[in-house]
């Protein structure tokens, strides 16, 4: 009897309509960039050029900030919360209605599997707008004082790993609180943000409330450093976050930063084993490991080390790597050549430093940027792959003997974004949660997100929280 | 398309098809089991329709339906409940003209004032919809007890809430007493304004087409004085809102009856339904559950 | 406690006393409900198309235990069912046969006669199916009757009352006794997971049945709701996979009841493929206890071949 080979099951691309080139979305309309050099966005799965994107130069940034300022002064900042809520509800509904299209676009531009963009990213994006829509007319209950006020114009710079979801995390609370925004998506994944600009138009959102400008680091820097900006929100690397923190020093700009991580995913001997394996896999291979809170350091209690490793490897053998638009793909493409080079480099370092590298047999496409799911065993705290954020499908496995040792190792990092704990013992979960220096602790699950749940880091993983009641505070003066 | 039963200017020569106004119980629209109906006139005394006159047995059936719906409704995610309430607002918006005409007729308002009332009612649903997934964040707490315990308190729906709806405000008032009960997961048996029951039936039709599970809201047209005591004394009802009771002695009697199984009682007070409602009605139908769990290795 | 000849050295110790058996079962790793259900839901999103679908549909047909277990069953009904089993789609001779016909013991002889020479097995429920509320002697007799009438496979029920009250030794001994009474017949042990309720219980009962000599572990009688579910089947597939890892033995899995559509059946096959592995994609190791499922599989099969959506009037009743 032949094996059960899944035939290709590609999601249709026909649903998306990608223009050959895109301008900047400023003051409610797409406009030509006045300075700056256009660049191309490619599909990382095939290296196919998807569209030409405008680069916003300093003059464009200035225009966008001024449009946001005007919209804040004249319309949005003074609009009753009840009406801001209705706009946000409209946006949430439009996202729900267009979610398949946006999911396909996201997978094309980012390389993530359609199963994830369809079942995780898009539902969360819509939910985020729904949730904050409900806050817009209830700000006095948010715990930020009796008469909380917006800050003004928010400069928002987001990464490429969850392009539309990061946009939602930034824009929804900002608008709910009464701010206007200028948002810059990552240069490798601008398409869904530009589609979102269209959604703002469909929602009849007043011009200038949301401005989307595209470009790379230079554009981001010009935006963050613009004098007309009251608030800076950034998600991305710790290095850039640190630079932003320095650049706003001495100004009145409020800042929130959501940066890198090197999360410990801690497995105790009494863990529910099959679900733990799923959690480890989800922790590090979800979204190709392009997740700031990825469970990239697996800490396994020595008494179950062999069993956990054997089961993990067996499970990794069933992961399907390939075409992001195939509905059966578990692991898609690495987002860019640059990121692939970094993953390769750090993996090589892991080998050179003596850790043992293993990947399941898997055939990678020849075109595009690909990296097989990889696990390193025999890793110690001193290894670079145990300390540096790889931001790829690479897991470093360490061991521990006691809960105290697990905590010590987990906390022994400059990062502090997230952690995972796997055990059937409730009191131990709470003890671990108490001890771990991380902004999110998942117990018997991993990589869960919800608009009601605050997310953000300790230490060099940044400051401020996104999501929940606390996520509003980042956009309110109190 | 748009039905305007009582708008005075009607230039079409076409004869109306009139709507039958019935009860809304368990997701269906039955007539009263008693077979009774009563005449509903507009504010000027002109005949509008015969409304079903609910009996104590209709109230009994409605409580059964509300109880049956409670587990499913309270067990839904808060996000889901919020979406359903928002959907009610969306569907109401599509029937704006119908509601405006009915409110104008019932309350004797000009059509523009009636429209403003409908606007406010829709906005109220939107406001409450947003509370679904925020309530626990605002009224719940994590409690720093002095000991190795994690201790937190969460609100939960109390159960079946009987609502004697305002007699004057046929739609905005009704919305303002139903929405805060169901948003947190309670289910409702509402007795409408006796003289102005028609907008409530139309609201039931909106609910029936808004993904609200059958039985979450049950609407009885008829006399609160007749049905109220049965609901107040009903041992499978957890709370009662006396908003529509105008006679203080009657309210006291209902409160006494409600004390039998220690129902949570909301006494009637003079309320301006156009004002922002605040949280008091929302929190009235909540239980607070506190959980202790040890912390240790 | 008796030991069984299927007990393998590494696990023989486990069944040497009730106390050890209990400690072993209670020491199995827990199953987190949310995680298990999330995994099953993810597997449900697999999209099986074209050639893969054709393969899955035919495989699923070959895995069916075409079942009738009603008080109103008659020889006539069973004859009709057997005829359907042999020629599921009279319009299409390429449609494969099902694996077995499953009936009550008193109708085994009828089924056996009707299926003679077809290669289709006769399975019989036994042991005071579906409740199992009878003495061991009667359960043994019930089994022997079925086997004597020609049953190739016996589907027994475990004593859920004993299991839920922690009398694992009693459940074990009963399975072992039926194992013996069934002789050469294949023994499927029905856990009735709808009554065991928790996944922890499903995992324990799966191991208990395997240790006691089951050839197959089966979810449900079909008389209790919920019957088979994907997460329950997932947990059972994990159990047979782990048992194979420990002993080298292949134990089969049979979800029964509630699987009515080809789409559902394919989700189960995906779960088999990605949990226990391709070895289990075989009627020897995976079965569906079902009746109406067959016609839906045939309809989808026709759709795939012709491109048109067929209607139920074009497929025979059993």
From TrEMBL, chain A:
SUPFAM superfamilies assigned to the protein according to its UniProt record, in alphabetical order: ALDH-like (SSF53720)
Coiled coil, from the record: none
Pfam family, one: Aldedh
Keywords assigned: Oxidoreductase
Active site, renumbered: 258
Domain Aldehyde dehydrogenase: 31-476
InterPro entries recorded: Ald_DH/histidinol_DH, Ald_DH_C, Ald_DH_CS_GLU, Ald_DH_N, Aldehyde_DH_dom
Entry's family note: Belongs to the aldehyde dehydrogenase family.
UniProt protein name: Acyl-CoA reductase-like NAD-dependent aldehyde dehydrogenase
Organism annotation: Kribbella orskensis
């Amino acid at each position: 009897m032949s094996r059960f080979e899944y035939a290709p099951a590609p999601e249709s691309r026909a649903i998306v309509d990608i223009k050959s080139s895109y301008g900047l979305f400023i003051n409610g309309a797409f406009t030509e960039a006045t300075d700056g050099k256009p660049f191309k966005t490619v599909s990382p799965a095939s290296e196919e050029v998807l569209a030409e994107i405008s680069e916003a130069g300093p003059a464009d940034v200035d225009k966008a900030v001024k449009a946001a300022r005007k919209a804040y002064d004249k319309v949005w900042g003074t609009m009753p919360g009840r009406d801001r809520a209705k706009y946000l509800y409209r946006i949430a509904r439009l996202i729900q209605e267009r979610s398949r299209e946006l999911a396909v676009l996201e997978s094309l531009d980012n390389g993530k599997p359609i199963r994830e963009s369809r079942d995780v990213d898009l539902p969360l994006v819509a939910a985020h707008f729904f949730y904050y829509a409900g806050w817009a007319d209830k700000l006095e209950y948010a715990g930020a004082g009796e008469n909380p006020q917006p800050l003004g114009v928010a400069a928002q710079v987001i990464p490429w790993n969850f392009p539309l979801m990061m946009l939602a995390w930034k824009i929804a609370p900002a608008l709910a609180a009464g701010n206007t925004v200028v948002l810059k998506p990552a240069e490798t994944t601008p398409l869904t943000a530009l589609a979102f600009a269209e959604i703002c138009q469909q929602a009849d959102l007043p011009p200038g409330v949301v401005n989307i400008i595209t470009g790379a680091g230079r554009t981001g820097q010009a935006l963050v450093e613009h004098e007309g900006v009251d608030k800076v929100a950034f998600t991305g690397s710790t290095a850039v976050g640190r630079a932003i923190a320095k650049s706003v020093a001495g100004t009145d700009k409020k800042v929130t930063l959501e940066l890198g991580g090197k999360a410990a995913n801690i497995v105790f001997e009494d863990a529910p084993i099959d679900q733990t394996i799923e959690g480890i896999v989800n922790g590090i291979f979800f979204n190709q490991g392009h997740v700031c809170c990825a469970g990239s350091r697996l800490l396994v209690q020595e008494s179950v080390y062999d069993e956990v490793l054997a089961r993990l490897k067996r499970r990794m053998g069933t992961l399907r790597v390939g075409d992001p638009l195939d509905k059966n793909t578990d692991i898609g493409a690495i987002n860019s050549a640059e990121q692939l080079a970094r993953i390769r480099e750090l993996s090589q370092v892991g080998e050179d430093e003596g850790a043992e590298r293993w990947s399941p047999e898997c055939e990678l496409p020849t075109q595009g940027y690909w990296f097989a799911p990889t696990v390193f065993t025999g890793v110690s705290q001193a290894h670079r792959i145990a300390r540096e954020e790889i931001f790829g499908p690479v897991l470093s496995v360490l061991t521990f003997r006691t809960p105290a040792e697990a905590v010590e190792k987990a906390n022994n990092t400059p990062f502090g974004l997230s952690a995972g704990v796997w055990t059937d013992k409730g009191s131990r979960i709470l003890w671990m949660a108490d001890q771990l220096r991380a902004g999110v602790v998942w117990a018997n699950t991993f990589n869960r997100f919800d608009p009601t749940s605050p997310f953000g880091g300790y230490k060099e993983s940044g400051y401020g929280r996104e999501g929940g009641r606390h996520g509003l505070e980042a956009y309110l003066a109190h | 398309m748009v039905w305007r039963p009582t708008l005075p200017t009607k230039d079409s020569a076409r004869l109306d098809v009139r709507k039958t106004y019935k009860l809304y119980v368990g997701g269906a629209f039955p007539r009263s089991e008693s077979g009774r109906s009563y005449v509903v006139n507009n504010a000027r005394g002109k005949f509008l329709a015969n409304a079903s006159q609910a009996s104590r047995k209709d109230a009994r059936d409605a409580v059964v339906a509300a109880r049956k719906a409670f587990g499913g409704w309270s067990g839904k995610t808060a996000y889901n409940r919020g979406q359903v309430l928002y959907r009610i607002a969306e569907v109401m918006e599509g029937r704006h003209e119908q509601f405006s005409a009915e409110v104008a007729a019932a309350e004797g308002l000009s059509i523009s004032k009636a429209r403003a009332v409908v606007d406010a009612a829709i906005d109220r649903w939107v406001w409450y919809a947003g509370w679904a997934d925020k309530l626990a964040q605002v009224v719940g707490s994590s409690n720093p007890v002095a000991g190795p315990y994690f201790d937190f308190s969460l609100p939960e729906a109390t159960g079946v809430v009987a609502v004697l709806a305002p007699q004057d405000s046929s739609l905005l008032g009704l919305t303002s007493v139903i929405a805060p009960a169901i948003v947190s997961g309670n289910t409702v048996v509402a007795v409408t304004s006796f003289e102005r029951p028609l907008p409530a039936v139309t609201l039931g039709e909106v609910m029936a087409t808004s993904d609200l599970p059958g039985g979450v809201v049950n609407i009885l047209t008829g006399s609160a004085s007749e049905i109220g005591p049965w609901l107040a004394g009903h041992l499978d009802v957890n709370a009662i809102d006396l908003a529509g009771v105008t006679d203080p002695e009657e309210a006291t009697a209902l409160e006494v009856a409600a004390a039998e199984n220690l129902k949570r009682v909301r006494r009637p007070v003079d309320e301006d339904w156009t004002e922002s409602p605040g949280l008091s009605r929302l929190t009235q139908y909540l239980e607070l559950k506190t959980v202790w769990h040890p912390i240790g290795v | 406690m008796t030991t069984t000849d299927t007990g393998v050295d590494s696990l023989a110790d486990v069944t040497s006393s009730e106390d050890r058996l209990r400690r072993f079962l209670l020491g199995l790793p827990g199953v987190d409900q949310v995680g298990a259900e999330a995994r099953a839901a993810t597997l449900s999103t697999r999209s099986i198309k074209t050639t893969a679908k054709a393969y899955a549909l035919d495989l699923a047909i070959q895995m069916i235990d075409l079942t009738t277990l009603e008080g109103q069953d008659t020889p006539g009904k069973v004859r009709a069912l057997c005829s359907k089993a042999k020629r599921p789609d009279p319009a299409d001779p390429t449609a494969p046969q099902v694996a077995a016909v499953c009936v009550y013991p008193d109708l085994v002889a009828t089924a056996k006669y009707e299926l003679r020479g077809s290669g289709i097995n006769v399975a019989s429920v036994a042991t005071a199916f579906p409740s199992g509320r009878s003495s061991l002697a009667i359960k043994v007799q019930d089994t022997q009757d079925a086997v004597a009438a020609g049953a190739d496979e016996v589907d027994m029920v475990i004593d859920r009352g004993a299991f839920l009250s922690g009398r694992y030794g009693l459940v074990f001994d009963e399975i072992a006794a039926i194992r013996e009474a069934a002789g050469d017949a294949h023994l499927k042990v029905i856990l009735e997971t709808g009554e065991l309720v928790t996944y922890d219980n499903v995992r324990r009962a799966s191991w208990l049945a395997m240790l006691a000599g089951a050839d197959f572990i089966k979810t449900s009688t079909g008389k209790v709701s919920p019957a088979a579910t994907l997460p329950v089947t997932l947990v059972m597939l994990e159990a047979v996979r782990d048992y194979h890892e420990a002993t080298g033995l292949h134990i089969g899995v049979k979800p029964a009841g509630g699987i009515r559509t080809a789409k559902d059946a394919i989700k189960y096959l995906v779960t088999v493929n990605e949990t226990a592995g391709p070895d289990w994609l075989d009627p020897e190791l995976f079965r569906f206890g079902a009746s109406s499922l067959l016609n839906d599989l045939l309809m989808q099969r026709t759709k795939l071949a012709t491109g048109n959506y067929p209607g139920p009037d074009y497929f025979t009743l059993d």
